[in-house]
């Protein structure tokens, strides 16, 4: 038994399917199946009960998995320590970020990560919420910065801060004198919105569905910046996270809080395995708290698992 076989076993155990595990490991299914059979022969135990749809782990597999994780983590830490000693890049951290939180968090986070972990190579991907969750599950992302709670089973969130949805209108809009806009009023407004693949759009549609309504969509764009640039030239409205106002303030736009009810948003770090990513989560949360507690940050971040 070697660490490669243990890593292959963990992938099959977590995926419950040889095909998905092989894709995650970037190897062929026959090669992966052979490695698992060799591991079973070496240990003289059956690790999986095979069915037509998925692999079911045996009691022996549960026991091996609980022992394999700390062994693999220990080996990874040893390898990283040696690389750091030789002055090589330690490892890569892949983070998926929603574009509606990207502008307020990522630029300052990158500089803080560079100073705290100069050997860490950070890869940032701007993605939809659905794509962030899909990539976390298949292992191509380490961490997501997204809205909570995560929608896919098997994902866990650590709350960073709370925001709220606001209505954004041109400065000459009929509702310009209103301090707040009720949900019923907003439901009547012709809107320029992000596409239906975006989580903000899905949250908005869910709120209106509670009233038995659908959004009055007049136009769609796939970037928040494009919407904010276009809005002053229309009589349309949109809905966006209130925190975005700090980065996109303009005399040509007015940001109105929603009421009756307000629509809260929770933004957090999302990962697949809290235990294995604990050090990374703590690092990012600490660094992001510094960003959020700056002059434009929320009053206070919230601790705990979502």
Automatic annotation (TrEMBL):
One of its GO terms (cellular component) is protein-DNA complex. Residues 1-58 form the HTH lysR-type domain. This is LysR family transcriptional regulator. One of its GO terms (molecular function) is DNA-binding transcription factor activity. It holds the Pfam family HTH_1. It comes from Pseudomonas proteolytica. PANTHER family: HTH-TYPE TRANSCRIPTIONAL REGULATOR CYNR, TRANSCRIPTIONAL DUAL REGULATOR HCAR-RELATED. CDD domains: PBP2_LTTR_substrate (cd05466). The lineage of its organism: Bacteria, Pseudomonadati, Pseudomonadota, Gammaproteobacteria, Pseudomonadales. Keywords: DNA-binding, Transcription, Transcription regulation. The keyword DNA-binding applies. Belongs to the LysR transcriptional regulatory family.
């Amino acid at each position: 038994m070697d660490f490669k076989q243990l890593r292959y076993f963990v992938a099959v155990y977590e995926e419950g399917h040889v095909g998905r595990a092989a894709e995650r490991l970037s190897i062929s299914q026959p090669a992966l199946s052979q490695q698992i059979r060799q591991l079973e022969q070496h240990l003289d135990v059956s690790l999986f009960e095979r069915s037509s749809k998925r692999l079911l782990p045996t009691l022996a597999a549960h026991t091996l998995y609980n022992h394999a994780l700390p062994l693999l983590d220990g080996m990874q830490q040893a390898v990283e320590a040696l690389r750091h000693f030789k002055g090589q890049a330690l490892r890569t951290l892949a983070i998926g970020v929603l574009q509606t939180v990207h502008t307020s968090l990522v630029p300052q986070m990158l500089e803080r990560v560079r100073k705290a972990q100069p050997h860490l190579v950070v890869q940032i991907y701007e993605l939809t919420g659905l794509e962030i969750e899909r990539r976390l599950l298949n292992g191509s992302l380490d961490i997501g910065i997204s809205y909570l709670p995560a929608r896919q089973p098997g994902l866990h969130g650590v709350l960073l801060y709370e925001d709220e949805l606001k209505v954004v209108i041109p400065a000459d809009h009929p509702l310009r004198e209103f301090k707040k806009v009720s949900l019923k009023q907003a439901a009547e407004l012709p809107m320029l919105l992000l596409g239906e693949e975006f989580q903000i759009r899905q949250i908005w549609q869910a709120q209106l569905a509670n009233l038995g309504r659908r959004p009055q969509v007049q136009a769609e764009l796939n970037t928040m910046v494009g919407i904010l640039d276009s809005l002053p030239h229309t009589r349309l409205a949109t809905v966006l996270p209130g925190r975005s106002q700090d980065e996109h303030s303009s005399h040509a736009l007015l940001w109105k809080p929603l009421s009756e009810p307000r629509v809260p948003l929770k933004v957090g770090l999302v990962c697949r395995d809290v235990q294995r990513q604990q050090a990374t989560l703590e690092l990012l949360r600490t660094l992001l708290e510094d960003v959020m507690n700056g002059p434009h940050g929320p009053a206070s971040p919230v601790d705990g698992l979502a």
